[in-house]
Amino acid sequence: MKISKVLLTLAAVLSIHISHAQFSPVANPASVQQVLAGNAAKTQTISSDFTQIKNMKMLNDKVSSKGKFYFKQQDKVRIEYTQPFQYLLVMSGGMITVKENGKVSKINTRNSLTMQSVNRVMMDCMRGTVFSNKDFSVKALASTSQYLLKLSPVNASMKSLFKQIDVYINKADNNVSKLVMTENNGDYTEMVFSNKKLNTALSDALFSVR
């Protein structure tokens, strides 16, 4: 498994369509940070379905896929694509493991600054700690029902991957409802979470690949 393909997959995961809701800047971003940190402390696991649409500007085309998403504190993520293809990506303990066409590949993020950054931003989105990520500047906005965190990359490795990442968070439960990235070439991917369940028992075996 080439690192470039893993990066493209994670870029797809970290992407959101522009919302039509009316957002305005938050007067006190620290208050949002406190809310998210408090909620993250109470959220041990997340499991949900997801629908992903990759929008390719030059081809004027969209590619849709579906799957299952799992998160477990502190650093475990499982992204399992089930339709129209099968593809598994697991992040745990500083390792990224991929299973495709029956073959398993492992990447140690400690050996790549870029992969470290991608791994961290994914975890920060789930743990509500994006404000402390030094790879991005964060602007907080809010509508009546959602927070919108706009992440702009500030270092070269992230700038080469992302133009911007938008994180949409429902105020009702203070959890991520959509994750987003816009690529430098104008492509973007929309990932919407549904049927979300919080704090259900998830075995550690779910975050290993064989």
What does this protein look like?
With 210 residues, this protein is α+β, with helices and mostly antiparallel strands. The chain has a single domain, classed as Lipoprotein localisation LolA/LolB/LppX (outer membrane lipoprotein receptor (LolB), chain A, Clam), CATH 2.50.20. Helices cover 22% and strands 44% of the residues. The protein has a 12-stranded antiparallel sheet. The longest helix is centred in the middle third of the chain and has 15 residues, at 113-127. Mean pLDDT is 84; it is low at 15-20.
Highlighted features:
single chain; 210 residues; alpha+beta; outer membrane lipoprotein receptor (LolB), chain A; 12-stranded antiparallel β-sheet; 12 strands; globular
